[in-house]
Specification:
Helix 1 packs antiparallel against helix 2 and helix 2 packs antiparallel against helix 3. Helix content is 66%, strand content 0%. It is an all-alpha fold.
């Protein structure tokens, strides 16, 4: 990126860049809120058995959004490590709750086999 600098303060170009960055972050926060609302609606629709999986998915989404909000690469790396730790913990909790364990590809594993959809 070419940044045009003057002797005093920022140019309009730099100011525009900063504005765009802040707007994009604001949009990301709004998207996070929308996703949370959608997940809440789905949780209300779902049965009680599937709600644990939905909550775990919501936590994962929140962590991803936190990663997006972070600016510096070092912090991003730290967030990646935190994500891995959280993933391991969630899988451990699910394995304790559920004898079958947690399968991310199949969210309906908590429901009995008769209700499983193809």
């Amino acid at each position: 990126m070419t940044i045009y600098r003057k002797r005093g303060g920022m140019t309009t170009y730099e100011y525009g860049e900063i504005l765009m960055y802040s707007v994009t972050r604001f949009c990301i926060t709004i998207m996070m809120m929308m996703m949370m609302m959608m997940m809440m609606m789905v949780m209300m629709m779902m049965r009680r058995r599937r709600r644990m999986v939905m909550i775990s998915m919501m936590m994962m989404l929140l962590l991803l959004m936190m990663m997006m909000m972070m600016m510096r690469r070092r912090r991003r790396m730290m967030m990646m490590r935190m994500m891995r730790m959280m993933m391991m913990r969630m899988i451990m909790i699910h394995s304790q709750l559920n004898t079958k364990g947690l399968y991310l590809c199949d969210l309906t594993i908590h429901s009995p086999l008769q209700n499983r959809k193809p």
